[in-house]
Amino acid sequence: MSEFPDQETEALRRKIQFSETGYYLDAVDEATDEYVHFYFIGKHDGKEVIFDCILYTLRFHYESELMELVEKRVMEKFPEYKTMINNNEDVQTEREEEIGMYMAEVILELEEDEAIKVTEHVDLDTTHPVGIGLDVGLQLEKITSETLDKFIKDFNSDTLELDETLYSFSTATED
Fold it and tell me: Which residue in 38, 75, 93, 124 is deepest, having the highest Cβ count within 10 Å?
């Protein structure tokens, strides 16, 4: 955890302080309705620090967890899939259709069993290179500037209340 130790961190602190929003969106990660990477200033252990925050919806979290488990199962059954993923290859193989069908079966099985459940959370990383890392999942339809404002206000005032309900979603699209 750093308390504005270097020029890069100091420059980031200034960007946050002089922004109209009270936070600074990460320039590398593209914000979506379900995922935002941003920085804001707050206190930790009585010291002013920069929080490097990844905020996402529980649906996004669910789908990430689901795909991680699906890929693990696919790699167990189709070892060549691991090589394709590791090499970031989009290789046409004679087994591509079989792999795709198996992935769909695993997704359906996991969803039917409600094997993946997620809950609201805030995870702190005090070993983060810039201030403190925050990994935050909230039950939201979408993330807006109002969402970020409310989160920062509630987090900094220690009034953030997390819903402990376990959520499961469906990846099926409605026609």
Answer: 38
Q: Which tens digits make up the pLDDT trace of 32-48? A: 999 999 999 999 988 88
Rounded to an integer, what distance in angstroms lies between the CA atom of residue 45 and that of residue 29? 28
d(CA 158, CA 33): 25
Q: Is 73 helix (H, G, I), strand (E, B) or coil?
A: helix
23 with 65, same domain? Answer: no
The residue to which tokens 């009034």 are assigned = 159
19 and 92 share a domain? no
Reported pTM: 0.84
Q: Cβ of 32: how many Cβ atoms within 10 Å?
A: 12
Cβ–Cβ < 8 Å for 3, 48? yes
